[in-house]
Amino acid sequence: MENSILTEVVQSVQNSEIAFSKFITANDTGATGGHQAGFHMHKKSWPLFFDSEGQKGENKDKFVTIKWQNSFETQSRFIYYGTGTRNEYRLTRFGKGFPFLQDENIGDLLVIAKQSEEFYEAFVLHSDDDIDGFLAALNISTTEINGIIPKQVEQTAENKLIECFNAFISTLTVSFPTTIELATNARNCYNNSYHITSQLIQTNPDKEILQWINAEFQLFKTLENNRYSERIKSPFTSVEELVEVANTILNRRKSRAGKSLEHHLAEVFNIFDLHYETQAVTEFNKKPDFLFPSVEAYRNPDYNENKLIVLAAKTTCKDRWRQVLNEADRIKTKHLFTLQQGISKNQLEEMYKYDVNLVVPKPYLDSFPREFRDKILTLDSFVKKVRNYQT
Q: How far apart are the C-alpha atoms of 374 and 370, rounded to whole Å?
């Protein structure tokens, strides 16, 4: 955590009464064509500023001082619009020259932390590394972004799900299982607890993959708490020992998050009976995450290259999307599945210029500029595209 902004934002959240995070979207910057200025805030964000939820039929607001990046302050307004057809929260009034509502900020992570009744600190994280570092430091899943940041581990899942998690943990003979064991058991616990069938997954894979990712994250937090609760009660003998334990925890969190997405995507592809290979070797020892239908077909010069598909999986991709450009030279269009919510118009134009085609969970589509939504595939539409090529 060498980046000073990253350190500062983590400390700010930890010292706050309550904090909130969200990806900056096209709706915020005006890229969707709307004229409303300022950050659109999730309906569940009201406790950040108000004592009670906004009521339909009335507007209400609150003026606060916000210090940005530990640098400059704005006198801003949090407002609930409840009159007419409107039912939304906005954070507005930042003054001229405010730097974080530009098109290039789409996809950045906004974090707001309440330090007192009238004073808040806010930070905008730009890079994938900073965003991943923030999520790891505070143990937040990507599915928990766009809401109040949990202050502690909260078991909010159904009792049956928690019981399944604990039963799995009790059978372990190692401190931490492999990422695929973690993903598989979290998914099984979720599917069994909520009676999720293969037919249901085929009906709405976009919804279920997000539920799986969230369930795995809950399992991981439960396991982590189980493994470290006793250790952190004992004093550390040196700063070095403290740093070593902290780094082990952070690195494991990052590693699990990266692999989690691949494991759950593979399960979706299995349920749809798609032919694919993972980590197949292409040119220059490159190993794309998913190659459809097989590396054998890829290496066969007689196989129709228009029916070859490559897919990369990256939880965030603001910086990392270029890594997919040379993963399979024979395939012109590269598909990239991401949990990133919102990417700037300029960056999307560059992606499509280089034939990188985004795939995102359907609920995240609205966070992208309107003019790109028809080009972006959902998981459901991607699966159907692959299946059409394979029949």
A: 8
Boundary-marking domain end, from 271, 291, 311: 271
CB 312 within 8 A of CB 327: yes
Q: Residue 269's CB: how many other CB atoms inside 10 A?
A: 22
Ramachandran category for residue 195: left, alpha or beta (phi over 0 → left; psi -120 to 50 → alpha):
left
**At 278, which helix (H) or strand (E)?**
strand 277-278
Residues 262 and 176 in one domain: yes
Q: 271: which 2 tokens?
A: 């349920």
Closest CA to 133 of 257, 37, 286: 257
- The total domain count for the chain is 3
Same domain, 284 and 379: yes
- Residue 106: which CATH number? 2.40.330.10
Which of 210, 242, 271 is a domain's end point?
A: 271
Beta strands 290-292 and 277-278: pairing type?
antiparallel
- Helix or strand (DSSP H, E) at 195: none
CA distance 365 to 342: 8
- The tokens for 289 are 């995450």
234-253 tens-digit pLDDT: 888 899 988 888 888 888 88
* Confidence band of 35 (pLDDT split at 50, 70, 90): very low
Q: Residue 267: give the domain boundaries.
A: 159-271
Tokens (6 digits) for 158: 């159904």
Local confidence band at 229 (pLDDT 50, 70, 90 cut-offs): confident
Going by C-beta distance under 8 Å and a sequence separation of 6 or more, which residues neighbour residue 234? Answer: none
Phi first, then psi, for residue 202 (nearest 5°) are -65, -30
Spatial neighbors of 250 by CB under 8 A, at least 6 apart, are 1, 133, 136, 137
The residue among 335, 309, 338 whose CA lies nearest residue 324 is 335
Q: What is the pLDDT of residue 152?
A: 56
Domain presence at residue 153: no
